[in-house]
Amino acid sequence: MPVKNRFAELHDEITAWRRDIHEHPELLYETDRTSALVADKLTEFGCDEVVTGIGRTGVIGVIKGNSDSSGRVIGLRADMDALPILEDTGVPYASKTPGVMHACGHDGHTAMLLGAAKYLSETRNFNGTVVVIFQPAEEGGAGGKAMCDDGLMDRWGIQEVYGMHNWPGQDAGTFSIRPGAFFAATDVFEIDFQGKGGHAAKPHETVDTTVMAAQAILALQTIASRNADPVDQVVVSVTSFETSSKAFNVIPQGVSLRGTVRTLAPETRDLAQTRIIEICNGIAATFGGTVEIDYVRNYPVMVNSEQETDFAVEVARSVSGECADAPLVMGGEDFAFMLEERPGAYILVGNGDTSPVHHPKYNFNDEIIPAGCSWYAEIAEKRMPAA
Ligand SMILES: [Zn+2]
Ligand SMILES: [Zn+2]
Q1: Which of 130, 148, 263, 349 is the most exposed place for a label (fewest CB within 10 A)?
Q2: DSSP-based three-state secondary structure for 175
């Protein structure tokens, strides 16, 4: 069965919601307007329960099926936040907030899940309960974790969760997915070397932190090349090198490095953290300086569970005929926290030949709305068939 006819009928309406959200982008947890819009729509659709303020500005809607003898509860999730980017799309509904734009398509995700919620509230053609989850702060703020910490899964008895992201470069409206590890853990670190500053012409009287930091940058590359199993993926990138003095003739007292670590397995993540600390401490000791290392674990590896991924593939095939194998993604995804708490699956829906996400010219492709809505709706209908 291709996309649901109802979504062809609703296409213009859902597109209008999407463009309205696009015009009014909001960052991280500051999704007040978007959250209010979502809550109003869910109430208007006749959801059995609409709750705001979960994970600060997150919103949930509960939709009960025609029967509930299955006792099943499925969570469907979308993200609502935008990015601090100056929009350059030139579309008539471009951001009205300079420097903030929906450059990751979360406007589209929110609109598609609203569309599915409208349809599911109208039809109720399933045996169980659907919880639609709208989260803030996907872009680095761990809004998904905040919702979980507020008891999202237990409070509504959610048993499985499903999410979706649009994917530029993949044919519009087609799906791709992979079981197991899918998106990387995204950790960050700050390494602060301290030595003894002094005159650049008298290095013997100093403890030179630029040399320490330079050695560290090179040595950190051996985590991927010499420490990690070659079949495991790990990226260690130093992205900032800041000296305490910018002068030509001063050996700086301190150097601060910043960077990120991307891994796809918990053991590799532990290994990278341990080795960064060991290597930097070793280098500081070797050169007579000291070091402080602040390693922050951000989003964990996002892991699709096997059975739910198979089911997501079946639904994707039913909507668009096929479902491709997606490559591993070294970017991070906040949905990882929800998948740590419950089995489920995260799928990519093609955005067609558009600019990549996080680019000033990126725009969500409204043509894919019926496919995305259909996937969300059929996850509920097929997982909890009407009695
Ligand atoms: Zn993004
Ligand atoms: Zn995104």
Answers
A1: 148
A2: strand
Quote the domain boundaries for residue 60.
Answer: 5-180+303-383
**Domain finish residue from 248, 283, 299:** 299
Residue 357 CA: which ligand is closest? 1
**What's the gap in Å between 146 CA and the centre of ligand 1?**
18
**Feature table: binding site for Mn(2+):** 104, 106, 139, 165, 358
107 with 30, same domain? yes
C-alpha 19 to ligand 2 mean position (Å): 17
pLDDT in tens, the chain (387 residues): 467 889 999 999 999 999 999 999 999 999 999 999 999 999 999 999 999 999 999 999 999 999 999 999 999 999 999 999 999 999 999 999 999 999 999 999 999 999 999 999 999 999 999 999 999 999 999 999 999 999 999 999 999 999 999 999 999 999 999 999 999 999 999 999 999 999 999 999 999 999 999 999 999 999 999 999 999 999 999 999 999 999 999 999 999 999 999 999 989 999 999 999 999 999 999 999 999 999 999 999 999 999 999 999 999 999 999 999 999 999 999 999 999 999 999 999 999 999 999 999 999 999 999 999 999 999 999 999 998
Ligand 2 geometric centre to CA of 309 (Å): 20
On whether both 100 and 122 belong to a single domain, the answer is yes
Read off the pTM: 0.91
* Token representation of residue 100: 């903030």
Total domains in the chain come to: 2
Binding-site residues, please?
104, 106, 139, 165, 358
Look up the CATH number of the domain holding residue 262. 3.30.70.360
Question: 364 alpha carbon to ligand 2 midpoint, in Å?
Answer: 11
Token pair, residue 346, equals: 């995260």
Separation CA 342–CA 116 (nearest Å): 21
Question: What are the strands of the beta sheet with 160-168, ordered from one edge?
Answer: 49-54, 58-64, 129-135, 73-79, 160-168, 344-352, 175-177, 323-325
